[in-house]
From TrEMBL:
One example GO MF annotation: endonuclease activity
UniProt cross-references to InterPro entries, sorted A to Z: Endonuclease_7 (IPR004211), Endonuclease_7_sf (IPR038563), His-Me_finger_sf (IPR044925)
SUPFAM superfamilies per UniProt: His-Me finger endonucleases
The name this protein goes by in its record: Endonuclease VII domain-containing protein
Keywords carried by this UniProt record: Endonuclease, Hydrolase, Nuclease
Lineage, uppermost ranks: Bacteria, Bacillati, Actinomycetota, Actinomycetes, Kitasatosporales
This protein's record includes keyword Hydrolase: yes
Naturally occurring in which organism (per UniProt): Streptomyces cavernicola
Domain of life, source organism: Bacteria
Length: 170
């Protein structure tokens, strides 16, 4: 209009718009009434307080489109898909085949996917300590054998053969 105002109020325009979209055969999300200071998450279907949402300055309400818990779950699923090419169901199946335990220590629950860094092939699911130990040994079987011998009491002391040349005992 000339005065810069709409002919109809916002709620009436919203109802009119929804009716037009339904007439076109488009899917219209129903409006969910929320108390002040709360927002509805379309992923989990729950109404949560603003403290459980990430900030998004470009959004009209200043909050993200999904709650923190849903974003974290989507992030974990995306990481598994990108990094290992597997879904959460594939990982859960692998954990179930290991009876839920780390296959190295047989004590802690298996939660971290272990993979070969050169081929990218998934080897199994380990606990944090075992997965990081293998990673810190550089996925090197010889280094692991030396660590086993060290724990057994046999120290692998290199022998100086020539200046700068060392020989490891066999």
């Amino acid at each position: 209009m000339r005065d810069g105002l709409q002919a109809y109020c916002r709620p009436c325009v919203a109802v009119y718009h929804q009716e037009r979209q339904l007439a076109k055969g488009k899917n219209v999300r129903p409006r969910v009434e929320t108390p002040p200071g709360h927002k509805y998450c379309r992923r989990c279907g729950e109404i949560k307080p603003h403290s459980e949402w990430h900030r998004n300055s470009s959004a009209s309400d200043g909050l993200s489109t999904s709650c923190k818990a849903c974003r974290a779950a989507a992030g974990r699923a995306g990481h598994l898909k990108r990094q290992y090419g597997m879904t959460e169901a594939d990982r859960d199946e692998l954990v179930a085949s290991q009876k839920g335990l780390c296959v190295i220590c047989l004590k802690n629950p298996a939660v971290h996917v272990d993979h070969c860094h050169s081929t990218g092939k998934v080897r199994g699911v380990l606990c944090f300590n075992c997965n990081s130990a293998i990673g810190k040994l550089g996925d090197d079987p010889d280094a692991l054998r030396r660590a086993i011998a060290y724990l057994g009491g046999n120290s692998w002391k290199p022998i100086l053969v020539a200046p700068g040349v060392y020989q490891l005992p066999s």
